[in-house]
Amino acid sequence: MPHPRIPVLVYHKIAEPSAFDVNSNTCVTPENFLNQMKLMALLGYRTADPEEYLKARLGLSARLPKKPFLITFDDAFESVLTRALPVLKSNGFSAALFMVSSGFGKSAFWDGEAADSPNRLLSPSGLRTLRDEGWTIGSHGVSHRDFRGLDGVALTEEALRSKAELEAELGSEVSWFAYPYGGYTPDARRALAEAGYKIGFATEEGDGDIFSVPRRIVSGKSGLLNFAMRLRQAGKRSLL
Known about the structure:
The protein is α/β, with parallel strands linked by helices.
């Protein structure tokens, strides 16, 4: 049977924009994030169990909430632990987080952020804390390279090495992946499958394939009304 259209949201930083932010559009303020999650709860949305979501994407029978959705975070900034986790817990929500495996404790070097930027990525212990809170931890590559520009050897290296490094830190399987910059190619999808991942997330319109699941980016410029109006447009590429 066809998989249901389940909204998948993607966030990055949950923080007030600062002079250190090279790309402030990916920075959602704590107040806006709180209001967005309150709205989701008020509208009756509940986060889907990751394994049940995976079954649904594969067209299998799955136990899902009446109004399921997924929350995902790319890059794994510390603000996800300090700002997002308490809000999600208070609303009964969980999430998936995609970590750059070479980025523990660093700034967003791929965006050109200064080494002394306060926007740090999670430490290994912070990542384990989220895992212990029931979050799904996935890979965002080794070094945030755009998969659309990599050859087969580099794709395999990014997929396998990031998986191994994260599994070594967590002591548990890592089988979810989110493409850096959201783009993919047929070779990229093939590399994920061969590396042992179960699902791959993009931020562009996908074709229904399990390794090109579309997500909607929640922009730092999004007001609550705009967020609510466009929530229904799940599965298409655009900013919320």
